[in-house]
Amino acid sequence: MMIGPTKLDVIHKPVLIREVRRAFNLDNLALLKKALRDVPRYIDATLGLGGHSLEIVKSGRFVLGIDDDEAMLEVAKIRLEKACSALNRKNEECFKLIQGNFRKIEEISGSLGHDLFLGIIFDLGVSTPQLTSDTRGFSFADPDAALDMRLSPKTQSVAASDLLNSLRSDQLEEMFGKVLDRKHSQRLAKRIIDYRSLRKIEKVGDFLGIIKGDSIKKELHPATLPFLALRIATNTELANLQETLPKAFSLLKKGGRLAVISFHSGEDRIVKSFFKSIKSQAIIISKSPIRPQADEIKDNPRARSAKMRVLERL
């Protein structure tokens, strides 16, 4: 699905923009006057529509943007080209975009040579256009959509529906146990096994019918957490995050900063554990996770669950 660039600001709002600018000291305008060879380099490992990368480019830095989703890359490219043009620079002086998974961050960054980076950001989760796509099945808004959930259908062979139709009961319990308690995970796994004994699970509506009204948290739609667990498993998000954080840290120069924005406890636990494991090599800038301020949550309710942790390499 292609998204019109004129509607981007309405469709998606990147979270914690002010806090990211502070974490990376992006308001140092003196960098705009430096020669290209002196421009600090950053990595946006989860480019999306380029919201955070825009801030980096507009502040005179260079950004390497990585994303699995080809449609996101196309839109981000248009936005970054405009920002680069406003600085009277060529695109290659401002950014480079590469399609791929951030677990290959070392290999991808090697395309720029072997110099280290001053900042790396991960904004985990799924962007609003992906959630509202009528073809991807990330959201439970359209019951007739295929239950796919792959960030990159070209490179990923296993869709969300494949997992629900093939995993054993204990594997289903483990998958949903990433975000649900044991009782709800067991109950949902049994419902899936019973349902698929009669027919295949193919559409969003099929999964919604299995979930029914089994609400876990009163403030959430009953399907919110089961859909989250299924998306995480389809894209191996937690395993990828655990694998890539040490790689990202190794790409930072002395004084370089790593910022990770997470949206659920499974992600945050991994980030917190990694930060703790390298505390002898880094300064933890955020002793407690940085949360959105009230005005941002009011303007963008999706930001309410965001947490950012920041460290600086010694």
Note down, in words, how this protein is organized.
This protein is an alpha/beta fold and 314 residues long. It folds into 2 domains: 5-129 and 237-313, Vaccinia Virus protein VP39 (Rossmann fold), CATH 3.40.50; 157-234, Putative methyltransferase TM0872, insert domain (DNA polymerase, domain 1). The chain is built from 15 helices and 7 strands. A 7-stranded mixed beta sheet has the order 3-2-1-4-5-7-6. Strand 1 (41-44), helix 3 (51-58) and strand 2 (62-67) form a beta-alpha-beta unit. The longest helix has 17 residues, at 70-86.
List the helices and strands and how they pair.
Layout: H1 8-11, H2 17-23, E1 41-44, H3 51-58, E2 62-67, H4 70-86, H5 91-94, E3 95-99, H6 105-109, E4 117-123, H7 128-132, H8 160-166, H9 169-176, H10 182-196, H11 204-211, H12 224-234, H13 237-250, E5 252-262, H14 265-277, E6 282-284, H15 294-299, E7 307-313
Parallel strand pairs: 1-2, 1-4, 2-3, 4-5
Antiparallel strand pairs: 5-7, 6-7
Helix pairs in contact: 3-4, 9-10, 13-14
Task: Give the gist of this structure.
With 314 residues, the chain is of the alpha/beta class.
Strand content: 5-15%
Any idea of the CATH topology of the largest domain?
A: Rossmann fold
Q: Give the biggest beta sheet.
A: 7 strands, mixed
Mean pLDDT over the full residue set: 88
- Please name the fourth-level CATH homologous superfamily of the largest domain: Vaccinia Virus protein VP39
Unreliable residue stretches? 1-10
- Termini separation comes to 43 Å
Give the quaternary arrangement of the chains. single chain
Named CATH architecture of the largest domain: 3-Layer(aba) Sandwich
The number of distinct structural domains comes to 2
The number of helices is: 15
Supply the CATH class of the largest domain: Alpha Beta
Please provide the ordered H/E string of secondary-structure elements: HHEHEHHEHEHHHHHHHEHEHE
Q: What share of residues is helical?
A: 40-55%
Number of strands: 7
Question: How would you classify the helix and strand content by structural class?
Answer: alpha/beta
Shape: globular
